[in-house]
Design goal:
13 helices; binds pyridoxal-5'-phosphate; two-stranded antiparallel sheet; globular; Aspartate Aminotransferase, domain 1
Amino acid sequence: MNNIPFLDLKLANEPIEKELIEAATNVIASGRYLHGEQTELLEREIASTCQTKYCVAVSNGLDALRLILRAYIELGRLQCHDVVIVPANTFIASVLAISDSGLEPILCEPCFDTMNLDTRKAALLTEKHNAKAIMPVHLYGTPCWDDKLVSLAKEQDLLIIEDNAQAIGAKAQTAGINGTSTTGGLGHAAGISFYPTKNLGALGDAGAVTTNDEELAATVRALANYGSDRRYHNIMKGFNCRIDEIQAAMLRVKLRFLEQENSRRQIIAETYNNCITHPEVITPKIFKEMTQVWHQYVIRVPRRDDFMRYLKNNGIGCDIHYATPPHLQPCYPHIQTEPLPTAEQLADEVVSLPIAHPITIQHATHIAEVINNWGTH
Ligand SMILES: Cc1ncc(COP(=O)(O)O)c(C=O)c1O
């Protein structure tokens, strides 16, 4: 078999290239490049996908999370320096959104089996630090949700802000505070990323906020547009975090294929799990009671350097998400945290295998076979 790259975005988008070009051409011809019909329709479609009443399409996933937090501060539901609990093994953007908003991130250990926030530990940290919000991250496309989060939200008045950057289309095993089990609609608000590598990726940067809270949605919308509620009338010191019409149009084309892409990824993940038998490779858990959307298929390999070298020598691309957790990044030298052995072990062991289109069952069985032969010759 030829070399298999970890991800080739040109190949990933190739089957729908014609539709993308047509949609981009229509936007160019329309003369409307911001605040147009494509954005409005995308917002409706994303709200429906996430089972929420409102969606505000914005510039990227980091801005989506920043806007939610800033909006809660503007609305008086969070105060500067309030503590927000966030998993320690997330992509840095989750933590950046919190610290950039003048709030204090407290990092919480994940579980080995879900690789997501340990909600029991999050509840303990909430009490210890008098936290006002929790940001569960649906890492790699696995929903981070359970009844503990529902009771924290309902009984302790905690805000639950989902980082849904990696999991659009996923479903948790239990319903969230709004009754739906779809990620993006589980908590009080959620931020989505449409970064090009995502299951629903734009051809540039884009993101969205989903929520059932009308006041929050209106505040996010105003903040994303210089803090103005109407033209040249600024009620808050806002930002420019708008989405382009072209990206909205690209996303609307790709949204039609999201379910198909997520199902394809589920089949590839099952194939890997069934076929990888090497004793030094720990495959991710498939949870029958949830719908995981496999933004990444992440195995754990304690002898990772040797393993990755071996895959590379055999023409198989792979990647690491993420090698350095936020608390060990140079930008957070003084972040307050207890020891985080699980997060650090995950950072040392995780390897992502190819899963995006056009990876097929044949590719996955070949990759599994190569993996199973690691160390035999
Ligand atoms: C978990 C997580 N949170 C936030 C982000 C930020 O999204 P963006 O890159 O669109 O700013 C990303 C993605 O890149 C992510 O993976």
